[in-house]
Amino acid sequence: MKFTLRQLEFYIALAETLQISKAASRCHISQSSMTVSMRNLEEAVNAPLFIRHAKGIQLTPVGERFLNHARKILHDSRAAVEDLHQQPEAINGVVRIGIAETLSAYLLPNLWGDIAQRFPLLETAFHEAPASQLLQALRQGDLDFCLLLTSNISHDSTLEVETWIRSPRRLWTAIGHPLLSVPELRLKDVEKAPFLLLVTDDYPDVISDYWQSRGCHPDIHFRTNSFEAIRSLVAQGKGVTILSDLVYRPWALGGQRVIRRTIDDCITYMDVGIVKNVGQPLSPACLRLMDFLRQQTARLGEAR
């Protein structure tokens, strides 16, 4: 089995766009080169990665699984090269960071180890809480900055917000769900299915506005703050949900598979970034850590 990192970059682009022309443009190659590269990749892995049809292409179940491996391979290879050229930095002090519950689960385990390796003398104090509590602590000076879902909070003149990742939200269903066979999937189609609602990080307010602005109302059958409960229930066919790619995993704890699909008439994003007080002076250590987190968070986002 032989394939190149460049082929994996092409594959990820095609898997994310599902259009040869868009993927080729994104990778700055011709459409014919993209087509040949993907055929060669399928031969290399000895498995069909795409289903080709009149309206475009679709990932096969094997293609979905391979996409996650491809992202991880690219992320790890870039991290390995970068690690060879970077040495621990001698900055010290204490940096107090507020972090959203979602990011604590999906970003912090990777980020904390990277921080410790790069800044061995720096003490980082992470505080997880709902966004409203973190923003109050930030305004009171108890935190230096926050890592939040910037799409889920109210922006005002007292806050400086910088978004680092825009993660598209998609429909999650069980394998074989009827909505997967709808030619052009619309929010009105999703409205008819039992909906499973995640209730963490102000998501109910966000999704409620999302539906109401389009004249739709989800048929909510269950509410939970557990990502794994949502994932398992979706995989078992108990309902569907709409969540971002950042928190997507193709397999539930019981081994069943979760499928994503874009809702054609409604695209929305979960934005991730930093929030700090306008005009708040930050220490050199804090500013350096923010720069580092910006780079690492962007890479982790790409790996999803």
Automatic annotation (TrEMBL):
- Quick check: keyword DNA-binding in the entry? yes
Q: Which GO terms describe its molecular function?
A: DNA binding; DNA-binding transcription factor activity
Q: Which residues form the HTH lysR-type domain?
A: 3-60
Q: Which Pfam families match?
A: HTH_1 (PF00126), LysR_substrate (PF03466)
- Could you name the Gene Ontology cellular component terms for this entry? cytosol
List the keywords (alphabetical).
DNA-binding, Transcription, Transcription regulation
Q: Which family does it belong to?
A: Belongs to the LysR transcriptional regulatory family.
The record, for PANTHER family, names: HTH-TYPE TRANSCRIPTIONAL REGULATOR YBHD
Q: What is this protein called?
A: LysR family transcriptional regulator
Q: Which organism is it from?
A: Enterobacter bugandensis
